[in-house]
Amino acid sequence: MPLFGRKRKDEPEFVAEPPAPLAEPPQVDENGLRSMADHRDYLLSQVEELPPFGQQLLDAVGLSLCEDIVTTISLPGFDNSAMDGYAVMAEDVAAASEDRPVTLPVVGEVAAGQAAQHPLSPGTAMKIMTGAPLPEQADAVVPYENTDRGADDVRVFEPSDRGRHIRRTGEDVSAGELVLAAGDRLDARRIGLLAAIGKDKVLVRPRPRVVVLATGSELVDPGLDLPSEQHIYDSNSFLLAAAAKAAGAQVFRVGLVGDDPDQVRQVISDQLIRADLLLTSGGVSQGDHDVVKQVMPELGSCDFAAVAMQPGKPQGFGLIGDDRTPMIMVPGNPVSAFVSFETFVRPVIRKLMGVTPYTRPVLRCRAAKAIHGSFGRMNFARGVVSVDADGGYQVELAGGHGSHLIGDLSRANALVIIPREVEEIPAGHEVDVWLLDDDQ
Ligand SMILES: Nc1nc2c(c(=O)[nH]1)N[C@H]1C(S)=C(S)[C@@H](COP(=O)(O)OP(=O)(O)OC[C@H]3O[C@@H](n4cnc5c(N)ncnc54)[C@H](O)[C@@H]3O)O[C@H]1N2
Ligand code: MOO
């Protein structure tokens, strides 16, 4: 059908292909609930690592390497001095002492970046700076501190054994050696090594582009006046955008969309072009205005589930548009949105980035006071982990269990994981936590 103009009577009606269905979702329990781990693994099975991309070193910090790196140069690249001092032959200074110094003529000087003018002759010394190549025949360095720092002749007060203060070719890394492997995550130390072997670009998985938006007609952008007492500021799109950024994503915060199906349809469709992952908050439970749940199945294949966790029970997932862009729809309560981020979104971002492990390491902690769970649902309580008098980790709650308590959430540094079959962790017992401030 032409884009403009009237449809001819004989022209067949355009019928959109129904989106391919999602893979079979996991089983639910007798209460219709899916386990947190099943839901997370299901989402992970539905997304693929992003294809590799060449990046400059500093743009690759935190990213996962997609190639093996074999160095073509050795480190050090040549025998060189570890100290400012004099290159000598060890046997010439073997008898040196404070009382009976050895005096040697100084026959030249070599600084870092230069080459020695000539080999060292027996019975002579050559001034040498840290990092400068060792003159041929020299086999030890005497640091300035063990000499009188003489210019024409130098008095040496201490012996330097063969090899002393010399950094040997290839003692750190040898040419031809595999220094980093595909799958390694690039941190500052590895970036330093890549630079040291002369690499300026590497093949890595890029930062996923995560588009974040919040739905709800009650929401107002921070910085504006609230139009009425019934309005609230949008915290979730900022919370989720900040968390996605900390997880390594490149984030586009689109901001607010009202509970209007046309608007949601339009904004999501417009954003697909720049998204590796769409992330929305709100509109996924049972409410009359839960518009995300209503609209998204028109734009892709979706799965809405009740997960056996508290907070974060209502969850949505979809593969949206022609490119089947993954979309995670988290619930609107701010703490639910955050816990959903930790349990589902962060692992998915890490999978897109090819960074393992996808989940946070679990730390065992002593409960300073009793912590009650939510029997039948895995509870992610907000906790404060500290070091107790015995040097062990202890945890206590940062506040209440309500999924609206963003003030309490801001005081927490951990999520305390209380299994679904546990009603209470008594004081003094051990419990699992995720530390939130470590990007492991
Ligand atoms: N009849 C039922 N009602 C609810 C159920 C249920 O199973 N049956 N589940 C509850 C649970 S659990 C959750 S969690 C919430 C999730 O609801 P929605 O995802 O539909 O979220 P909304 O209704 O849009 O909002 C919930 C709550 O959060 C506030 N909110 C929303 N977006 C933001 C934002 N960007 N910044 C700050 N605060 C936000 C919103 O004003 C509501 O107070 O549903 C329960 N209900
Ligand atoms: O599960 Mo909702 O996420 O309790 O607040």
TrEMBL record:
Catalytic activity: adenylyl-molybdopterin + molybdate = Mo-molybdopterin + AMP + H(+)
Top-level lineage group: Bacteria
Pfam families: MoCF_biosynth, MoeA_C, MoeA_N
Cofactor: Mg(2+)
Region ranges (Disordered): 1-32
Pathway connected to this protein: Cofactor biosynthesis; molybdopterin biosynthesis
Keywords, comma-separated and alphabetical: Magnesium, Metal-binding, Molybdenum, Molybdenum cofactor biosynthesis, Transferase
CDD domains: MoeA (cd00887)
All residue ranges annotated as the MoaB/Mog domain in the record: 211-351
Name the record gives this protein: Molybdopterin molybdenumtransferase
Native species: Microlunatus parietis
